[in-house]
């Protein structure tokens, strides 16, 4: 009995001493020192001893000044943002632990359980239960090591914790999207989004994550989770990227994605899709998807869901690319080997994007290999491509260089158009991208791009047009819940026409549009159910509408320079995704945009209630430099919702309205290199559009098949068109040549896709209509009696079949089939004589159609052997474009010969076009 009493007194005395030590206060100040150095300073200043592993601490530094603070309060403060816990032992010993907690007592009533208190005891035990796991004693590779996440907290009694982060390719810092993440032994999983982001709920303790994706080595990650936390992974590429030729999709991405009307192009898809002259082209792949078309074969520009070609925002590394195509639209202006990611938003456009009505084409370059020198190249009948990936600082930074050149003169001579037989054409593009990762919190990427086309239709004329852009992007991780990105960009498009036939009417004409943009975007992960994006952006437009001057001193051409235009467009945006429950998720956003047309400049005022022409001008106003000529703005709402009927079937709906402050001026049926852009001002209003969509998305056999059916309706105001006989080039008063009206389009898009197996590919069908209306009290500003009529790109039926059959790992056969309704045209329907001259009478605008378009292509793909230890992996493509020899009309025009009106059809490729391309990757 004496021994027990002595022991009890001793314990009480020790506890009293510990209590006194804990209550002892101290004062300390420190400036810009590491946590281990701070602990050493505490040891020198006090009688405390610390036990820890210095590898647990990040290499950041801290500062502070504390007066009369207890040791536990100080430790709580300096370790609040870390995973470090601590335990006070024997009064002056502090044991630090990483993630977990040291327990110094048993749970309440551990040695005796009252049946009446069973629920209470179970709850208490779960609340403070320590986390145990079995760690392998054998040698562990990096792929199978155990990751510890979160800081254990006695007060946290959650049954599940949230794990999130980003997954990238090892050595490339390139996000892996569509990666399947499954919890081993449980029916639970998720997939990464377009930025490689994932989020998953895990039970406390040890979890094994299985990760799989096309072109990525399969891996398992063991994670011990103590609390909510962030964990980023880097995964290795596998040789499947060379082997596979399937058109792949996310297993459940199309079903689970909240925003509707999105498309993601797998860059590897394009190498197996037979295109003209064997050229790999991701933009042509995009036109094989429902809702995205062109005005015809070889036509530049894209029409998305019945929208105009100027209503698409095309971004390359966050900088605007005004002309993404070479050679009248036959080739892409982007090196296919330099592209790492390609996303299309054609439905509900995220609030961070604005300035266009129909779509956003978001194209990102690859991040270069940071571990070893590598590259990819191709040699074809018309172009050659080369991309080099050069490590600068191992595992931190790399330089990506890409270049393309063309030798296309022979193709002009083969086109069924006599006027082009003696023409010449060439183009090139070059890009450089430098990426650098400073640490886990900071990385930058700088990109520069240049393209140029030179073509001569006749021996006395030379057309030159070019793109230039540069962008600088900085990504910063503020803390575990907040990240930020900052982008500075500049884009320029210009064209130049030289005409010189040795006479006195030679001239040089040029045009330039330049824009400089700054964007700041922030991401906030509030919880596993709610996250926000918000930010601001602005861009300054500088347009030189054109100038002309004589090439020689004897030229009779009078110099003329159209007054330049300037405009400032700015916006603030916020959007959030909220998972209301497991089935219903909402993505809502608000963007408020503001635009101001800026001086120095002048603007003409026209008589109210009169048409705009030279005879109705009442005044001309002059504006000083940076003075606001006219201002526009307004809110843009973005709302999307998704309801999961079951894990592989969902319904989605969306609404969005957009404002566009810039217009393309053209009186051609398709995009022309000499089209110009016009900023909104006091006489030309911005375009405004609204879109509604509703769709169903279904997957079968664990993602082997996917089917989607989506309908849409769009309407727009103040879209720009030209008056009959308008002269748009070098016009000082362009508002007198154009009119603004309404547009509407609607349609239904169907897609069925097979993602795996020997036979894979997709079948897409789109039924859509696109109409425009220009009504006015004045006949010169009214078209088709003020009624709706089909737009130039109204093609009701569009069918695309893309297939690939893999015989072996090395040999595969690809085929495409495309069918489209012929586009509308205006035709002469009669003639009449007036003053002994014959004139044609034309139909209502676009009331007739050219013949329907259809084409079939075949390609045979041969891969080299898949030995790992070889200098380069090769890939041959033998293709036949337009294998049926279909003479598809590109345009139809009319001539009068001997008093008779005749229709003349022009075609781009009227015969089968074979090609062979050699690709190699090292």
UniProtKB/TrEMBL annotation:
Membrane-topology annotation of the record: Multi-pass membrane protein
Occurrences of domain Protein FecR C-terminal (ranges): 28-96
A Pfam family per the record: CarbopepD_reg_2
Keywords: Cell outer membrane, Membrane, Receptor, Transmembrane, Transmembrane beta strand, Transport
Cellular location(s): Cell outer membrane
Span of domain TonB-dependent receptor plug: 279-356
Broad class of the protein's primary localization: membrane
Origin superkingdom: Bacteria
GO cellular component entries: cell outer membrane
Family: Belongs to the TonB-dependent receptor family.
Name of the featured protein: TonB-dependent receptor
Species this protein is from: Costertonia aggregata
């Amino acid at each position: 009995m004496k021994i027990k009493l002595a022991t009890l007194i001793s314990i009480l005395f020790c506890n009293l001493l510990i209590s006194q030590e804990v209550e002892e206060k101290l004062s300390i100040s420190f400036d810009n020192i590491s946590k281990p150095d701070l602990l050493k300073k505490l040891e020198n200043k006090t009688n405390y001893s610390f036990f820890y592993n210095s590898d647990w601490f990040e290499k950041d530094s801290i500062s502070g000044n504390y007066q009369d603070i207890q040791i536990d309060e100080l430790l709580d403060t300096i370790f609040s943002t870390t995973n470090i816990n601590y335990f006070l032992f024997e009064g002056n010993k502090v044991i630090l632990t990483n993630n977990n907690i040291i327990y110094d007592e048993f749970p309440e009533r551990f040695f005796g359980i009252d049946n009446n208190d069973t629920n209470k005891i179970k709850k208490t035990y779960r609340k403070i239960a320590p986390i145990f796991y079995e760690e392998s004693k054998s040698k562990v590779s990096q792929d199978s090591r155990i990751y510890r996440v979160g800081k254990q907290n006695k007060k946290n009694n959650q049954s599940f914790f949230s794990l999130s982060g980003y997954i990238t390719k090892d050595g490339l810092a390139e996000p892996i999207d569509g990666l399947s993440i499954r919890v081993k032994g449980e029916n639970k999983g998720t997939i990464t989004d377009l930025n490689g982001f994932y989020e998953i709920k895990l039970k406390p303790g040890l979890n094994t994550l299985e990760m799989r994706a096309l072109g990525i080595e399969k891996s398992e990650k063991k994670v011990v989770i103590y609390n909510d936390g962030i964990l980023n992974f880097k995964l290795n590429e596998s040789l499947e990227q060379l082997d596979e030729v399937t058109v792949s999709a996310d297993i459940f991405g199309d079903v689970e994605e909240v925003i509707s009307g999105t498309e993601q192009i797998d860059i590897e898809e394009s190498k197996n899709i037979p295109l003209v002259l064997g050229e790999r082209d991701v933009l042509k792949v995009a036109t094989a998807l429902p809702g995205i078309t062109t005005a015809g074969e070889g036509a530049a520009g894209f029409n998305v869901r019945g929208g105009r070609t100027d209503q698409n925002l095309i971004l390359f590394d966050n900088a605007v690319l005004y002309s993404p195509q070479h050679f009248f639209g036959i080739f892409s202006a982007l090196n296919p080997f330099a592209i790492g990611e390609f996303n299309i938003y054609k439905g509900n456009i995220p609030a961070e994007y604005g300035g266009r009505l129909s779509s956003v084409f978001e194209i990102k370059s690859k991040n270069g290999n940071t571990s070893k020198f590598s590259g990819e190249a191709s040699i074809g009948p018309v172009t050659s491509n080369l991309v080099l990936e050069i490590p600068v600082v191992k595992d931190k930074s790399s330089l990506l260089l890409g270049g393309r050149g063309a030798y296309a003169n022979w193709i002009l001579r083969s086109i069924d158009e006599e006027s082009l037989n003696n023409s010449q054409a060439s183009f090139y593009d070059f890009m450089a991208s430098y990426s650098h990762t400073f640490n886990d919190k900071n990385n930058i990427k700088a990109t520069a791009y240049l393209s140029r086309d030179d073509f001569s239709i006749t021996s006395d004329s030379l057309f030159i047009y070019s793109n230039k852009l540069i962008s600088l992007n900085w990504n910063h991780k503020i803390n575990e819940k907040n990240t930020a990105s900052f982008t500075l960009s500049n884009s320029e498009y210009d064209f130049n026409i030289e005409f010189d036939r040795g006479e006195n009417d030679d001239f040089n004409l040029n045009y330039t549009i330049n824009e400089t943009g700054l964007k700041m975007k922030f991401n906030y992960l509030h919880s596993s159910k709610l996250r926000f994006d918000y930010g601001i952006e602005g861009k300054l437009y500088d347009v030189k509408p054109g100038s002309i001057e004589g090439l020689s001193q004897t030229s009779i051409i009078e110099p003329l320079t159209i007054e330049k235009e300037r405009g400032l467009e700015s916006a603030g945006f916020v959007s959030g995704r909220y998972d209301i429950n497991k089935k219903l998720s909402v993505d809502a956003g608000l963007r408020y945009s503001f635009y101001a047309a800026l001086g120095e400049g002048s603007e003409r005022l026209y008589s109210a209630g009169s048409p705009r022409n030279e005879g109705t001008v009442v005044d001309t106003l002059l504006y000083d430099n940076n003075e606001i000529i006219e201002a526009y703005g307004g809110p843009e709402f973005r709302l999307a919702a998704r309801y999961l009927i079951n894990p592989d079937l969902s319904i989605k709906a969306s609404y969005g309205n957009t404002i566009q402050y810039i217009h393309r001026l053209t009186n051609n049926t398709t995009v022309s290199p000499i089209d110009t852009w016009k900023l909104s001002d006091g006489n030309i209003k911005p375009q405004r559009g609204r879109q509604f969509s509703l769709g169903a998305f279904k997957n079968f056999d664990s993602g082997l098949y996917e089917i989607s059916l989506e309908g849409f309706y769009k309407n727009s105001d103040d879209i720009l068109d030209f008056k009959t006989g308008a002269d748009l080039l070098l016009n000082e008063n362009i508002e007198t040549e154009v009119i603004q009206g309404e547009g509407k389009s609607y349609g239904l898009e169907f897609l069925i896709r097979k993602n795996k197996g020997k036979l894979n590919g997709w079948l897409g069908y789109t039924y859509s209509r696109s109409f425009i209306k220009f009504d006015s009290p004045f006949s010169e500003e009214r078209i088709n009696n003020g009624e709706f009529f089909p737009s130039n790109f109204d093609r009701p039926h569009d069918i695309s079949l893309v297939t690939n059959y893999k015989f072996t790992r090395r040999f595969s056969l690809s085929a495409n089939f495309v069918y489209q309704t012929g586009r509308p045209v205006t035709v002469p329907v009669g003639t009449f004589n007036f003053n002994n001259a014959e004139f044609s009478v034309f139909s209502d605008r676009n009331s007739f159609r050219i013949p329907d378009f259809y084409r079939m292509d075949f390609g045979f793909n041969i891969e080299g052997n898949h030995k790992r230890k070889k200098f380069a992996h090769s890939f041959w493509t033998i293709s036949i474009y337009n294998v049926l020899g279909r003479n598809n009309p590109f345009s139809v025009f009319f001539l009068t010969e001997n008093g008779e009106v005749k229709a003349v059809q022009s075609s781009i490729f009227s015969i089968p076009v074979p090609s062979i391309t050699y690709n190699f990757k090292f």
